[in-house]
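In response to the reviewer comment on reproducibility (Comment 2.3), we provide here a single inverse folding case reported in full, input and output, so that an independent group could reproduce the run without further information from us. The structure tokens appear first.
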């Protein structure tokens, strides 16, 4: 895992808030970096990105061969976790994307999720 300072210039591809931390994907010198809070990792062609939903928290996992996995865990607002699936007649992928911006992020990065 390479540390990339948030002050680096570059083109912002995605910026949002997942849980309590700001997350952004930035392209710097032809390299794509994912920064979550004070942690970051470089994304390349060998990277595998996955989104996993859990009962209490969701995870974005970035794996690169020969390196430890970068795992970012975050919680959605409790109302989105409890009430959305219960009160919506057909809770599907599009409803989940409206509740969890992490799904859109993983799709942008070419990853997989529990809905596919």
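Designed residues, in position order:
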């Amino acid at each position: 895992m390479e540390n990339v300072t948030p002050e680096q210039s570059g083109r912002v591809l995605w910026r949002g808030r997942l849980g309590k931390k700001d997350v952004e994907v930035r392209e710097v010198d032809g390299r794509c970096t994912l920064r979550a809070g004070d942690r970051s990792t470089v994304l390349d062609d060998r990277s595998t990105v996955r989104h996993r939903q859990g009962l209490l928290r969701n995870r974005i996992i970035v794996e690169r061969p020969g390196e430890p996995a970068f795992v970012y865990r975050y919680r959605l607002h409790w109302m989105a976790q409890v009430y959305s699936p219960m009160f919506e007649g057909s809770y599907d992928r599009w409803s989940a994307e409206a509740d969890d911006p992490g799904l859109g992020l993983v799709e942008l990065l070419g990853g997989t999720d529990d809905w596919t």
